[in-house]
Amino acid sequence: MTSIGIYGSLGRMGQAIAAVAPELNAKVAGGADAQDDPATIAARADVLIDFSAPQALEAHLAAARAAGKPIVVGTTGLSPQHHALIDEAAKDIAVLQTGNTSLGIGLLQRLVREAAAQLGPDWDIEIVEMHHRHKVDAPSGTALMLGKAAAAGMGTTLAEAEVTDRAGTVGARASGTIGLASLRGGSVVGDHSVVFATQGERIELTHRADDRAIFAHGAVKAALWLAGKPAGRYSMDQVLGG
Ligand SMILES: NC(=O)C1=CN([C@@H]2O[C@H](COP(=O)(O)OP(=O)(O)OC[C@H]3O[C@@H](n4cnc5c(N)ncnc54)[C@H](OP(=O)(O)O)[C@@H]3O)[C@@H](O)[C@H]2O)C=CC1
Ligand SMILES: O=C(O)C1=N[C@H](C(=O)O)C[C@H](O)C1
């Protein structure tokens, strides 16, 4: 039975992962949180899952690399520097990074890309996400993934197209942009809508997560899939066969 080590084990996702692992025939070898040495669990587990905080990523990747263990990174709020660290680690170990491990978001990404490509430049694209009051990063990792999918469909990049800071007299909407808006409140697990709007009509594609178990299932499936893979950077699409 494959054993999993969890970084961020006492958090909301860490606990959800420990709860679903036995259903998927995986064993939890243990976990590590802010006060623990990440090397200890890296030595004991077959594969690692990180749902902690961006500031911990470098140490977690280093521990995984030193122990030669694959790692699934679900932590969001990552900077370009964090992505460079992941690319570097992926030279020596298998690393799968994703802002969303659910089944539905994988499909939504493909639908958004296709819709953006088919609808063309006369359709404005806006992304709205809502999460619980404890979430610390914005826009969500998933909103950024959906933004990248929309940008790819439009033939551009999210860095070129994104607008995240509308306040005051910002002027009329610029064509070819993608707006991202973040709502925070209560216990919302994770809602994402991509709105395509043109003169007189609107299409909305929405995913709502009701339970963290969906993310936990996806994370454990990804970990089981990653165990034994050669060094490299992998995506959730590969796990889901997309
Ligand atoms: N990819 C996906 O599908 C999903 C991603 N996420 C992302 O996962 C991350 C965690 O979310 P969530 O479980 O809700 O958050 P929580 O705040 O509930 O849990 C975070 C955990 O990480 C630990 N942690 C914080 N800093 C460090 C550190 N420096 N070293 C080691 N551990 C640390 C915390 O430990 P302590 O309390 O001791 O500080 C805590 O146990 C977020 O980035 C979130 O956006 C969430 C859901 C789905
Ligand atoms: O912090 C969360 O809770 C979530 N984070 C991920 C994100 O930033 O997209 C995924 C999910 O929506 C829940």
Automatic annotation (TrEMBL):
Pathway: Amino-acid biosynthesis; L-lysine biosynthesis via DAP pathway; (S)-tetrahydrodipicolinate from L-aspartate: step 4/4. Belongs to the DapB family. CDD domains: DHDPR_N (cd02274). The lineage of its organism: Bacteria, Pseudomonadati, Pseudomonadota, Alphaproteobacteria, Sphingomonadales. It comes from Sphingomonas kyeonggiensis. (S)-2,3,4,5-tetrahydrodipicolinate binds at residues 132, 141-142. The keyword Lipid metabolism does not apply. Its EC number is 1.17.1.8. GO terms for biological process: diaminopimelate biosynthetic process; lysine biosynthetic process via diaminopimelate. NAD(+) binds at residues 8-13, 74-76, 98-101. Its main location: cytoplasm. This is 4-hydroxy-tetrahydrodipicolinate reductase. It is found in: Cytoplasm. One of its GO terms (molecular function) is NAD binding. PANTHER family: 4-HYDROXY-TETRAHYDRODIPICOLINATE REDUCTASE 1, CHLOROPLASTIC-RELATED, DIHYDRODIPICOLINATE REDUCTASE. Residues 3-100 form the Dihydrodipicolinate reductase N-terminal domain.
